[in-house]
Amino acid sequence: MPHDHHDHDHPHALLPPEPALRVRALETILTDKGLIDPAALDEIIDTYQNQIGPKNGATVVAKMWMDEAFRQEMLSDPMPSLEEMGLYGRQGEHMVFLENSDTVHNLVVCTLCSCYPWPLLGIPPGWFKSDAYRARVVREPRKVLAEFGVEVPETTKVRVWDSTAEIRYLVVPQRPKGSEGLSEQELAALVTRDSMIGTGLAKEPQS
């Protein structure tokens, strides 16, 4: 549902979750013992965060652009199709797809922690979990979007959606102009992780 509360002082929003502290402590111990290479670990995380993970969501978005019946299914009740495609499970049990248009630009946040659709987008980026993003995107979404390089016309409404443990959102960016003759695979390459969070736009096709 759209964000309709401003509980930014909730303790959960001010402190990292306990599992995150444990992971950091374990990483430090293993690094000190020479059992892991922090640089290699960062590379693995980057691969899943920016490459492997978002490809799933991009594939779904591209199919929605190409197939009107599939688009309607995903906007009304996406879970049956996601389960059939194997894109469901922990952190992705209850998905809602939000379609951007000329009149509405959707933007996703989790104000209390970092609920995120892992099966579709992979590991959440660090900024998505930061206190600054979680607080500011609700108060001044247009300014935050501008910092991401996204200028939304004043005539376009910016709607912020607050993810929870019960429901997670994925933004369907507008299909870029000039992409009419592209294949589904080529379209998927235009869909970025940030565009499926709402902090970015789909890439323009190369001429």
Task: Describe the fold and architecture.
The chain has about 210 residues and is mostly helical. It has one domain: Nitrile hydratase alpha /Thiocyanate hydrolase gamma (Nitrile Hydratase, Chain A, Alpha-Beta Complex), CATH 3.90.330. Helices cover about 45% and strands about 10% of the residues. The chain contains 11 helices and 4 strands. It has helices spanning about 10-15, 20-30, 40-65, 70-75, 80-85, 120, 125-130, 130-140, 140-145, 185-190, 195, and strands spanning about 95-100, 105-110, 155-160, 170. It has a two-stranded parallel ribbon with strand order 1-4. The protein has a two-stranded parallel sheet with strand order 2-3. Helix 3 packs across helix 4 and helix 8 packs across helix 9. The longest helix is centred in the N-terminal third of the chain and has 29 residues, at about 40-65. The N and C termini lie far apart (about 40 Å). Residues about 5-15 have low confidence and may be disordered.
